[in-house]
């Protein structure tokens, strides 16, 4: 019969699919009880009671232990970590969470990502924000592209600095109804900011917890291109966020975009959908040119099994309005690119889960007194 130590070693192959480490290393194996009759009891401790990966642990633990000599049956049971154990786990993982309730009044957090730069992420972020605001949603934009921030320019902001409230919170600037925070508000124009990992983590954390976002229906986050530190940090801080992937239509771009999808999977962020940008150009006489090829957005959406939220054509006005600092969906809502982006915004609304709590006081009638 295998010893407790041998069983523990065998369990090193059981990996927590969310944390990507062995349950032994994570100290999640609470008890190992080899019995006389070849039955082994293993207790695994979970981070939450309703842990969706329970089934995975059940079969992986059984398989690993059954492979040992003399084992005839394996009973897997579960318990749940207490607060101290959870804190120890967070410490071991080097994760720092946001304080409870930091974004409690934000209903939906949507990260706009892409495999590479220049595909229109920032353009889409500001126009989606403006489209949502035009539909009466309360919207915030967090520019997390700390190296290549362009949100201030695209929303005509930047001369002003955000004020600090009496509670020492940063008050976002406003572009119309949209609340906006960007690193660009805090550094000299075009200053190169050199971020080391911990600094970056701290800055992003501060943008989430020390900013007076208030009650929002949507917080849109413009990610830097690629799958680097920022995306990982945000994924850790915002497990509730969803991810929208931007790609141009050519197959090569789609392959690059897929890497960001893989990253999202790895950090367990849900992918809400794909937006294909620069999908063709229509001349004033009505001829259509597929300048960046065709079909990449749909192919990526099919592969990821998520909706294609929109195909946004190339239009001169979209570029001009980005440079002018007024989103196209505000300046010319009928432009074909604006229409496509408004459609994507409606898609985001449709995909958003219904609000978990009633935010406003129920409105009642005052009965007339006679
Ligand atoms: N559909 C489009 N039609 C015309 N110009 C676009 C379109 N999408 C983006 N652009 C322009 O392309 C450039 C890059 O877009 P940007 O949003 O800055 O990309 P990213 O944030 O992904 O680096 C900008 O000048 C922008 O105005
Ligand atoms: Mg950008």
Please describe what this structure looks like.
- The protein is an alpha/beta fold and 370 residues long.
- It folds into 2 domains: 4-93, Fe-S cluster assembly (FSCA) (GMP Synthetase, Chain A, domain 3, 2-Layer Sandwich), CATH 3.30.300.130; 106-351, 3-Layer(aba) Sandwich (Rossmann fold), CATH 3.40.50.300.
- 34% of the residues lie in helices and 22% in strands.
- It contains 12 helices and 14 strands.
- The strands form 3 sheets. Strands 6, 7, 8, 9, 10, 11, 12, 13 and 14 form a 9-stranded mixed sheet that branches. It has a 3-stranded mixed sheet with strand order 3-4-5, covered by helices on one side. It has a two-stranded antiparallel ribbon with strand order 1-2.
- Helix 4 crosses helix 12, helix 6 packs across helix 7 and helix 8 (251-266) runs parallel beside helix 9 (296-304).
- The site of adenosine-5'-diphosphate has 18 residues, from helix 4, strand 12, strand 14 and helix 10.
Secondary-structure map with pairings?
Blueprint (H helix, E strand, L loop, with lengths): L3 H7 L4 E2 L4 E2 L6 E6 L4 E8 L7 H13 L6 E8 L2 H11 L12 E9 L6 H14 L4 E5 L7 H4 L18 E3 L2 E5 L14 H13 L6 E7 L6 H9 L4 E6 L3 H16 L3 E13 L5 E2 L6 H9 L3 E7 L1 H9 L3 H4 L4 H16 L19
Parallel strand pairs: 4-5, 6-10, 6-11, 7-9, 7-10, 11-12, 12-14
Antiparallel strand pairs: 1-2, 3-4, 8-9, 12-13
Helix pairs in contact: 4-12, 6-7, 8-9
Adenosine-5'-diphosphate binds next to helix 4, strand 12, strand 14 and helix 10.
